[in-house]
Amino acid sequence: MIKVEIRGENIEVTDAIRGFIEDKVSKLERYFKNDPEVFAHANIKTYQNKQGKFEITIPMKGLTLRAEEVHDDLYVAVDQSVDKLERQIRKHKTKINRKFRETAQAELDMFSVQEPVQEENKDEEIKIFKSKEFTLKPMDAEEAILQMDMLGHDFFVFNDRDTDGTSIVYKRKDGQYGLIETN
User: Where would one find coiled-coil regions in this protein (predicted)?
Assistant: First the structure.
């Protein structure tokens, strides 16, 4: 069973809203049959323009599922977010199954001749089209933000002068900046 923790910003989480969210999230339970306890963190926010934002995060071992939607109707935002999560889960499951089939096929090929395994969803493969290599320059977060803005990028990776760790600054959808620090 998925346990949903719901937090509201600028809105009271009524029993009706809570019930609707829990009902929608419960349709994802079929993907977590092997996990006895799955926790989902949901955040509801309303803006002055009457739009509602729904964010949901499901942290798991080795994977974090996350979706967010902004819509005039909060219930539509919840529906769209849960649909996004479901697509993420199916895509991840397909990727794992494909890797398993490829590994199993390679092992079978070593011992016998087999029929080739049919590849499904070949168009959903993740392909890296461009690769870059660069040296991380020691700097502080403010300098990294200036570099990011100067380059016109949405994120910038740098070696944090204060912590000696690799850090990432990024531009958020609301125009503010975020910082990710590594251990």
Answer: 75-102
- Per-residue model confidence as pLDDT tens digits over 119-159: 455 556 778 877 777 778 888 999 888 888 877 788 989 99
Task: Please name the residue that has the structure tokens 């199993």.
Answer: 104
Q: Measure the CA angle with vertex 155, ends 164 and 96; round to 5°.
A: 95
Q: What are the tokens at 143?
A: 């300098």
pLDDT digits (tens, 9 = 90+) for 7-36: 999 889 999 999 999 999 988 888 877 766
Q: Is the same domain home to 16 and 75? A: yes
Instruction: Count how many domains the chain has.
Output: 2
Give per-residue burial for 106-144: e unless 16+ CB within 10 Å, then b: eeeeeeeeeeeeeeeeeeeeeeeeeeeeeeeeebebeeb
Asked whether residue 12 falls in the same domain as residue 87, the answer is: yes
Q: Is the pTM of this model over 0.70?
A: no
**Does residue 88 sit in the same domain as residue 136?**
no
Q: Which residue range(s) make up the domain with 169?
A: 132-181
Calculate helix-pair angle for 74-111, 15-26, nearest 10 degrees: 20
